[in-house]
Amino acid sequence: MKYLVVIIDGAAGWALPRRRGKTCLELAKTPHLDAMAREAVLGLVRTVPPGMEPSSACACMSLMGYDPKVYYRGRSGIEAKSRGIPIGPDEVVFRCNLVAVRDGKMWSYSSGHITTPEAEQLIASLNGSLGSDEVRFYPGVSYRHICKIKGHRDALRAVCTPPHDIPGKPVAGFLPRGEGSGFLRDLMERSKSVLEGHPVNVERLGRGDIPATMLWLFWGSESLPDMPPFKEVYGLDAALTSGVDLLQGLARLTGMAVLNIPGVTDGQDNDYAAQGGGALEALGKYDLVVIHIEAPDEAAHEGDIDGKIAAIQKVDGEIISRIYRRGRGALRVLVMPDHATPIKVQTHTDEPVPFMLWGKGFESNGAGRFTEAEAKSAGFFIQEGYSIMAKLVG
User: How far apart are CA 29 and CA 313, in angstroms?
Assistant: First the structure.
């Protein structure tokens, strides 16, 4: 038997009063997801344990079959693993976003989704001006980067807020605070003068694009505990495809192969057809493949209803369609968001999310569509999110 896990990042959400009280999943035209739903087991699953942060790191770790209460120590450590960044005993890492602040308010948590080549130039300049034996910046994808700090472990105790949680809000009340925050705030403040007037930003402004005005540090992490290999836990050779470092880091932590499929990105320009086709082709070599699609979550963070709907529809039309044609008897498939990202708040929430188990051995429990409401009506609830992988492969 072959297995697929399709993570439609942030696809779940809340009813939209301006769209007839429907969610983005309900508004999207998803004939293939709905056809699968009529043949599948639907329900709700809690991927984020109570009291833990509703990040993709925590939620995806859970749905990939690992208990976050045991293994989660912060998102930055996972992303560092993805990039091969070692974390010593006296070192910590923080996610380091290039953000845009205007008139004291968070203008863009992503600097207008700055390109990776542009961001790499800015990070190089920041290393030249702010880098030292204590601080080093590592470039990542688009606006997402890593800052490694040595000799300031107390920074982990600082209270930090992700920039995507505060769209349009004054940033003064959301800067790092509490014990260990001083070092972080100083780095963030000094980054402004490095970025102001930088040729990359001058060019972006000239094109009418949003510039990167400062660094924003959050999601601190220490070195992560060892995680048992997926093959050892579930007896399957597994691989993953994603356009973001976080998921690639989780794959490496669990001994999964990372598929290099050209055209896979973290945004609306993702080549959905290539990702779906590449994942199915990889089943010739691997027992299980995880397909992670970031675009719905990015659109939700921007408050872009139509963009989120379009991303869900592309997943349906260019990935789910291929899986459905592959055949019910040939595959067992888990489809679900990792967490909800409601348009109203433009950030992640920790409520249970819909899931669908389809394929050999799974029989319909009466759903008609893959939506939050249909999943709730099914009356099947999984409290421990990490147990859902065993239900797929068991």
Answer: 6
